[in-house]
Amino acid sequence: MKYQTIPPGGVPAAPLSQTNLGPLSACYLQYMVQQMQQVLSLQREIKEEKYAARRALVPMLQAEEDERFVKEWKKYLEEEARIMKDVPGWKVGESVYHSGKWMPPATGELRPDVW
User: Fold this and answer.
1) How sure is the predictor about 40, in pLDDT bands with cuts at 50, 70 and 90?
2) Distance CA 23, CA 84 (A)
């Protein structure tokens, strides 16, 4: 059995040194940039759709939270009136801050039974 060996004088040089790869590289780069733009455009559309859905839901969620807060606030005022009924000069629901600025209510659930 005879094996293939390297020919005498060596292997001939590859013809790549004579080929101009500039136009091929430019076409490949342009193709990759176009593909990246398509991917980024799709991601942007998906993100915008997600944000649009959130913007549509926020008013409804805020209305539900406001309704819950009003119910809890009424319970809180009733509890405050019951607890402070014997304190002279106490006004139920009046702000304890005297800065003249509006102070937002404490966040979280209003639970007078825990105080």
Assistant:
1) very high
2) 86
CA-closest candidate to residue 104, choices 67, 73, 68 = 73
pLDDT digits (tens, 9 = 90+) for 55-95: 999 999 999 988 988 888 888 889 889 999 999 999 998 87
| Per-residue CA distances from 26 to 3, 17, 21, 37, 106 (Å) | 42, 18, 9, 16, 61
User: In this structure, what token pair is assigned to residue 65?
Assistant: 């939270």
Residue 98: phi and psi, rounded to 5, are: -115, 30
Q: What is the rounded CA–CA span in Å between residue 92 and residue 106?
A: 17
Q: How many C-alpha atoms does 89 have within 13 Å on its Cβ side?
A: 1
The DSSP code sequence of 74-96 is HHHHHHHHHHTTTSTT--TT--S
pLDDT at 17 over 70: no
Name which residue leads in pLDDT, 42 or 99. 42
